[in-house]
Amino acid sequence: MRNAPTLRSQEDRDISPAELDALWSEPPYTLAGANELFPGNDIMTTGKGEEDQPLSRGSTVSLAVGERFSSDVLLVFCGKQRSSGEPDSDLQEALRTRLRVVESNSQDVIQLFKDLSARLLSVHAEKDCFVITFKTVEEIWKFSTYLSLGYVARCLENFLCDQTFWLDSERLSNVEICVTVDEEHLATLYLGLLLQEGSFFAKALCNGEHSEDEDLVYSKNDLVMVRNTGQESMWEGTQLASGQHGLVPVHSMQPLPYPFYQWFLRKYPGTVGAFHATKAQFDHPVVIGTCVATMDHNPVGIDELQFSRGDLIEVVGFLLTGLDTFIGRHFSSGQTGFVQKTHVRPENVRPLDGQLVFLSEEEKETLSQFNPCSEQYYSGLLNKLSTTDISTVYRLDRLDESDFVYIKNQPKQEPKPPASARQSMISVKSDTPPYHSSPRPSIYTSQSHLETENEALSFSLEDTFKEMDEFEEDPSLFMDESSWDADEAELCDPTLTLLNQDHFQEPFQALYNLSYSFLDTTFSGLQEDELLQHLESVREGAKKNRMHWAHRRVCFLLGRLCAKKSKYSQARVYFEEALGVPVGGFSDRLLLIALYTNLTAIYLKQKLTDKLQRTLEKASALLLCLPRHSFCSVDEFEVLKLILRRAVVESDKHLEARACYLIVCLFLHLGKTDDALPFVERLQFLTISLSVEAASPIAPVDLNWMLSRLYHKKYMPYLSLASLSLDSGENRTLQDAFQKIELFIKNSVRLNPQWREGTSLIPAQIVVYLQQALSIASQGNDMRTQRDLCLSLACVYQQHGALEQAVQCAQRATQTGGHISEEEGFEASVLLAWLLVLAGEPDGAAVTLRPLLQSLHETDSPTQRGVVFNLLALCFRKEGRIQEAGHHFYCALQISRENGNMRNEALALANLGCLALSVAAPGLAERFLVRSLRLYLELAESPTDGEHVQAFLWLGRSYRDRGRSQDVRVSYEMALLIAISAKNLHSQMVVAKRLSHLYTDLLLHGQCIIYYEHCVALSRELKDKRLEGEYLEILSNLYLSLNTEKSSRKSLDYTKQSLRISIDLGKREDESETWLQVGRIYYLIQENELADMYLQAAVKTALRMNDPYFALNIYEEAGDVFFKGHHNRLAALPFYRDGSLPFARSVKDVQSEFRLLSKLTELLMNLKQYKEALQYAVLAVQISTTTGVRLKERVAFHRLATVYFSLQQFEMAENYYLKSLSLCSGVLEHPREARYFVKVYCRLGDLTLHKLKDAFDAVGYFHLALAAALEDQENLQALYVVYMKLAEIHANQMPNEELSQGYMDSAQALGKELAGGTDPAVYSPGKA
């Protein structure tokens, strides 16, 4: 396994469509360039074993014999500020943190890159990059497209940014995520994959030299499909124009620049056709206006325009310089016909507007009108988002921080109508305004048209996309079926008369449209064979009566029916006959377009190259030059494919864009969304590229919205959300805004299925689309919509804890609702008051509620009065006005009882119980809460699990305050059962934590561990890494406290899991401390090498934080692991001496330095390394004088004296013992303080007596010890020792029998007292 690619910041930059365009076609990426870079071209293969291991790292692609290069691509991401373009360090660190989390669970990120058609190899959070690779040209084509369209960056933005990012609109508008790759490496990899696949399409760079028979004859710019035969200089080639085969020199072939071209030509094979492009004097590729004829022209073919030199000719539609023919209108005669581009020169021409580029205004407008929803549809969506029961259901109080933050706003529960009623509601279209007061179904249960995964992608585009069904109610052109038995002459007259109109009429639309609707409308009731016979008779009648228009139209219909049955030769005859009829074809433009395109398509299918010359240019002009084309045949795709191939050969992007646009229209009209998608992506790429080339900041049409729908159909939620977020929103209606919200919801549910089940919060990103909708709604007068949008935003902000923004939205909703009616403003006002209560502003909430209460006294709305009473009571309790709070709770309780509202009654009783708990009345609280819980048992089917759980928790607290631990346990466990049955993860978390604390207090660690393990499982299900880490740390400590080897190893396992989370979250301080904890545990189980390894890791992590104080603490704690232990204590030395002590000196922390010197002294003394201990003891004495603490100075001198004593330097030891005694206070504040004097004076007495042989001084020290011992009557044993020492000295060293006997008698008496032989009160040490 090799190292990951290195970052190349100077070479890596964003790929724009224009840069990608230049990149693909640069000379180094021709085959000749490949030969220069990689000599000896051979058949290209992947590295060994790659097919078996498609995601193996370090894979290579062979470009030549013995030449390989890495196929790994480095994708680097960076958070930047839009305004300055500078990196945003806060955003970057947040992205790294999120990436560390997903790095440990790589399935999500693998799926992300799978949607992006890339193969993820590895993730490097610290380097802000991903390593990806590609195995096919199609993969690199799709990824490069997504990269250039901005989808890769948006996918990473949606994937890596947490929920709080989307709640800050100001920050959101100023930051962005940029992604960069090594462009040259990507292009080289594309070339390598082309060669690896063995065949590809290339363009000839020059005319071919026919030197041998087997050489292929080709001209410059010819398209050739090249196959690698393994030869060095000559490969096999097939010319697309003629289909001829032969050998071609490698150096003369350039692979087509875009991977899209390779895919298109491979998927849709065919010839390039017989185009003969000519240059003309036009400065722009697409123009409109007028031209001047440069010569006289007499029409050679039908429908050509006749003109004389100098005549003005108006361009009808567009003039595309990529085509030789356009459609013109003679200014003088008014005639319309085909005009050769070489016969005119520009006179007053201009390019299309910069925002159009290759579309007409009508085409852009209709293309932008993407599937508008009915008012009923988006009204239902808004109701789902803004629904809340705040005006009908009481809210629970919150006793302290351990209670639920809030009970989630539940939607109103409305009775479901019967199935028949629901069906009738769906089928009947309502003309009423969309926002009448109506029941609002739950967001989790209501359905919309987007719920159907297989819905057809419909477009209400005026001509291009709508279904041509206008004739369903029109009268038939013919009699009923029985009329066909009449005389033939009578039959033909009405048909011929109608078909012989010399201009287009609306009923003719059914004859030309794509759906063959004339079979069901105009000729309904006839089988196709019968219709063919009838149309033949009509054709004969038209020819006989010289009815030219009828003749042309009936031949067209006959040709369509034959083509429908794949009888192309017969259809061709009919179409050619129709075109041969001498009429002015442009009088019925749709018929003319249908004839030319159908006939040209048949020529292409039958490969009639000689006849193709006569119709191809005209068919191309009719398709591309006339805006808002209406398709009449699927076979028109054959013509469009040929035009697209010509655009590829000539590198004409405007011609390519126009062809792609028509292909998109055709496929979407046919419902072939999968086939349309690549062309929509290409068209979006071209619109951006052409806009950049034209220096226009706005693309001609934003297809992101359409692409979002198409990705949704293909179940690609990441791309759907990315393209949706990039939609410009230009000229969007309110219906469009709600459709975007619905699309966002659908794809968010796919990425987070818990949201569909109601167990997860609505994604915070929805606020972006709600704000867009609100911005559009604010431009109109629909106050109800504005109010509901504000309510929706307030609810989303509330659920994500952004109470400040929620309050602002609720205030706006209140103001807007007040403009509608008092009733409409009530719900918003109550929500505002509740949000103010949650935000800790009870005064503001009370100010909002009091006017509501006054107004409700005059109405018959008891439930609303109860809601206001309940909220006012919550305000009063938070203000400490207990009596008023109790009164209002009681009023709310009475109202709920009078209305028979059991849920509100239960809530009011629970709030009264909470109030009683807050004033230390647990008995009263119990009575209220038990009555509340009885009511909840009868509401088992209602969405009240959160309230039910909270009531049980409060009941448990009332028992706890009275010491009834078993009742507390039962209450909490009942609460947990309810939360589990309701699948409420947040409730389970709160209750499990309470139970864990309870069992900790009861010292039942086994049960405590069970519930904390449940908390860990819940944290993982909620994907909350922070909580998971906290609970793992608690579990580790609990297992460690059991003090067994098995429990210690279990603790070790949990600590390591916590360590991984700390690393993922980027919390260096927690990470270092967790490394330290792992080292401690390894030391406890006596695995010293592993302990030292983890402690060193803790130190290294601390050093990376550049915080000397933190590093000092970690070094010291690492040393303490060994210092305070019972084995391998010497291992503490390097942590103290080489780590923490230098840091203490560098930051001039004298307290820490003294502490460390003392530890080093004691450690070395215990290890009997007295000489080294002396050095640190001397330093400790020097530092102690600067600490300003006399106790530390005394301890330092005492320890130094002890070191000298151990070194047998007794005079020095005596000196420093006396120095330590001199630092003691002269007045004893407590008798126990005398014990230190006793200890030191005894030590000095022994030292002078036995070591210095000075009995006189020894007697003096023991007399001082005796005096100190007499002060501490509780330490009789020390007094006994002093008596014995003095008796011994006067018996031996300084003989004095009387004194010796006196001290001995005192010692013996004291000994009897210590042994329990005498009453302690009888003996008085002072008598001695």
What labels describe this entry?
single chain, about 1350 residues, 6-stranded antiparallel sheet, 5-stranded antiparallel sheet, about 60% helix
Summarize the structure.
This protein has 1328 residues and is an alpha+beta fold. Helix content is 58%, strand content 7%. The radius of gyration is 45 Å and the shape is elongated.
Report the C-alpha radius of gyration, rounded: 45 Å
Strand residues, percent: 5-15%
SS element count, helices: 54
The biggest beta sheet is recorded as: 6 strands, antiparallel
**What is the number of strand segments?**
17
Which stretches of 5+ consecutive residues score pLDDT under 50? 1-14, 22-67, 372-377, 406-492, 1317-1328
Shape descriptor reads: elongated
Class derived from helix and strand content: alpha+beta
Overall mean pLDDT stands at 80
Distance between the termini: 87 Å
Written description of the protein model:
- The protein is an alpha+beta fold and 1328 residues long.
- It is 58% helix and 7% strand.
- The protein contains 54 helices and 17 strands.
- The strands form four sheets. Strands 12, 13, 14, 15, 16 and 17 form a six-stranded antiparallel beta sheet that branches. It has a five-stranded antiparallel beta sheet with strand order 10-9-8-7-11. The chain has a four-stranded antiparallel beta sheet with strand order 4-5-3-6.
- Strand 15 and strand 16 (336-340) form a beta hairpin.
- Helix 12 packs parallel to helix 29 (783-799), helix 31 (822-838) runs parallel beside helix 33 (862-878) and helix 38 runs antiparallel to helix 39 (985-1001).
- The longest helix is centred in the middle third of the chain and has 21 residues, at 673-693.
- The chain starts with 16 loop residues before the first helix and ends in a 13-residue tail after the last helix.
- Pfam families: TPR_8 (PF13181).
- Residues 421-430 have a biased composition (Polar residues).
- Residues 197-258, 286-349 form the SH3 domain.
